[in-house]
Amino acid sequence: MKEEPAAMEKSRIHLSLPTADLREGVRFYTALFGVGPSKERPGYARFEAAEPSVLLALVEAPEFTREGGDFHYGIQVRSWKAALDILKRLERSGYTARVERGIECCYSVQDKFWVKDPGGRPWEVYVRLTDEGESLSPRPAEGPILRA
After folding, report:
1. SS3 label, residue 16
2. Where are the beta strands (DSSP E) in 20-71?
3. CATH (domain of 66)
4. Most buried in the list 3, 46, 117, 122, measured by CB within 10 Å?
5. Prior bond of 118 cis (ω within 30°)
6. What is the per-residue pLDDT across 51-96, written as a single tens digit (0 to 9) for each?
C-alpha cells in the first residue's frame, strides 16, 4: 500500500542509489523490504517501505561499478515548514544549503534544499508537492528569503 506524504506521521530517510541492473536491483530490494516498488519507470524504481521507514530510489546507471559512489542521501519531510526547521538548525550550526523550489525530480515536483556533510556527501531535505500531476502537499505562501 502506497503511503502519501500528506498522510505521513514522521519523516523518513530517502536514498537514491545507482544500479547497473535495475531489474536485479528491484528484485533485491523487493526481497529486502518485503514490498515491491511503488513506482517504476524506464531507468527508475521507487520503494516506499513502512518498515523500515525509508524511501529508496534506484536509478539505472549502466556505467556504475561497485567502486562508484552513491548518488545522494535525503530526508523526505511532511511539509516545507518541517524542511525549514531542519534548514535553520543546519544554518545555526554553520552549514550552508542551496534551496530549490518547484523542482521536477523523480517524476514529481518538490521543494527542497541541499547540504553537504563533512565528507562531501550530498543530502537533500524535501517535500513532494505533486506526483505526476497529483497534488500531495499544499504549497505554503512564500516566506522569507533564506540564504542559499
Report:
1. strand
2. 39-41, 44-49, 54-60
3. 3.10.180.10
4. 46
5. no
6. 879 999 999 988 776 665 667 888 999 899 999 999 999 998 899 9
